Amino acid sequence: MSTSSNRFRALAPLAAVLAVVAAGVALGAATAGARTNVNAVAYRLTATLTPGQVVPAISAPASAAGHFHGILFRSGIGAARVAALAGCKVVVAPKRSGLPTRINCGGSVAVLPGAAGQWRLVWRLSYSGLSGPATGAAIHIAPVGHSAAPLTKICAPCAPISHGSMSVTADQATALTNNSAYVDVSTAAHPDGEIRGQIVRSTVGFQLGR
User: Fold this and answer.
1) Do residue 25 and residue 128 come from a single domain?
2) Whether 105 contacts 120, CB under 8 Å
3) Coil, strand or helix: which one is 182?
C-alpha cells in the first residue's frame, strides 16, 4: 500500500472528529442566538406559610398554616402556550359564546391574552387554623428574615381559599422568581402578619421563537 494511502487512513478519523466538533459549535451558536429571542416564559411559584417565618416573631396558634401557589408568565403569547409552559389547563369557551379563552392553574383562573409583553401573576391562597378571620394578605419584596411594606394586597378580607390574577412589572417579576419576595396573611390579632412564607420558584418553562 502506498504512503499516501496510509496517510489518508490516518487523517480520516481526525477529519471526522473535526467535523463533529464543527457541527457542535455551529449548533451551540445557533442555540445561543435563539435564546436571545425567547418570547414565551412561565414560572410556577409556591410558598408555605407558617407563624415561625413572621418577622418580628409573634405568638400565634401552632395550627396556623397556609399555602400560596402561583403562575407567573409573560402574556401576549397565547393561552395554549402559557398553559403548556406552566402545566395548566386551557378552558375553551363554547363556540359563538363570545367568552374569552382562559387557563386554570390549580384552581386559579386567568383570562387570556393580556397585553403583549406584560407580566401577569395568577395566584391561589389557602389557609387554616388562624386566630381569627383573615383580614388581608399581601406580597412583600424582602429576603428571608427581613420584612418590608406591602408591595400589593392580593385580598382583603380573604376567604379560606382565595384566588385571582394581577399584572406585575418586570422588576417585580424578577423579585418573585429569585426568592426575594414573600406573602403573608394578617388577622385582627396580628395586623402585620400571622403567617408568612417565602415565595420560591419551583419550575420554569420557556418557548423559543414564535
Assistant:
1) no
2) no
3) strand
